[in-house]
Specification:
Length: about 200
């Protein structure tokens, strides 16, 4: 496995997490609004969790299981979220996951990061498929997937339990044969600010 690359987009840098990011991760991911629509981010977010999560990345990457990037807003040199791919080598596919700190929502940052990850997944990792899922009520996440031209693949009813409620899971996916780097480039696509 090559060292984890750093990816650059118009406004963002996607880089490996460092131990020094832990406080910021705890602050951003420890927001109830971020936890509410994710399967794996608890609220409250305990001390030490961010450190342990960041420390797990190196081995996961080395073993080709997960690649996780910190999303950094270049203009402020500020970490604003996380994005990653959980890889199934056997099936040449990966599951995409992400969160953005709530102060940075609705500015196209997630969409911009996802476009870079799709390109990385298809071009560098030569995956055949990238898929993702979200709680049915998480309309923002669904919108991100539509904007990057992932396709609806179905609903798994009451598939998750979060805060004592069963949640429907919506699945989206995109195949390598459907991915176009030109369509994935917001500039080529006539879009503003990655939106
Ligand atoms: C989902 C999430 C990552 C989106 O990040 P973001 O940077 O705000 O996403 P973008 O700005 O790229 O796109 C969001 C889109 O959703 C739209 N949107 C936001 N809230 C919406 C709502 N309640 N209903 C419909 N659309 C909504 C925005 O208008 C935007 O679409 P547009 O560009 O067409 O206007 C962010 O909300 C988040 O981190 N949520 C908590 C964690 C989470 O849910 N992670 C994903 C788990 S699957």
């Amino acid at each position: 496995m090559k060292p984890q690359p750093t990816l650059e987009t118009q406004r963002l840098q996607l880089r490996a997490f460092a131990a020094t990011d832990a406080d910021r991760v705890q602050r951003l991911a420890g927001d109830r609004a971020v936890s509410a629509t994710t399967v794996n981010i608890p609220y409250p977010y305990e001390d030490g969790r961010a450190e342990a999560w960041i420390a797990s990345h190196r081995l996961e990457y080395k073993e080709g299981r997960v690649v996780t990037f910190a999303i950094v807003l270049r203009s402020e040199n500020a970490l604003i979220g996380a994005i990653g791919l959980t890889i199934s080598e056997k099936h040449s596919r990966a599951e995409l996951g992400y969160w953005i700190g709530s102060a940075y929502w609705n500015q196209g940052y997630c969409t911009e990061a996802v476009r870079a990850l799709l390109r990385y997944g298809f071009e560098d990792l030569t995956l055949n498929k990238i898929h993702a899922s979200f709680f049915k009520e998480n309309l923002a996440s669904g919108r991100v997937m539509e904007k990057v031209r992932m396709l609806y693949e179905g609903c798994r009813r009451q598939h998750f339990q979060k805060e004592n409620e069963f949640r429907d899971r919506i699945d989206y996916g995109i195949l390598r044969s459907e991915f176009s780097p030109i369509a994935a480039d917001p500039k080529q696509n006539g879009e503003r600010n990655g939106k």
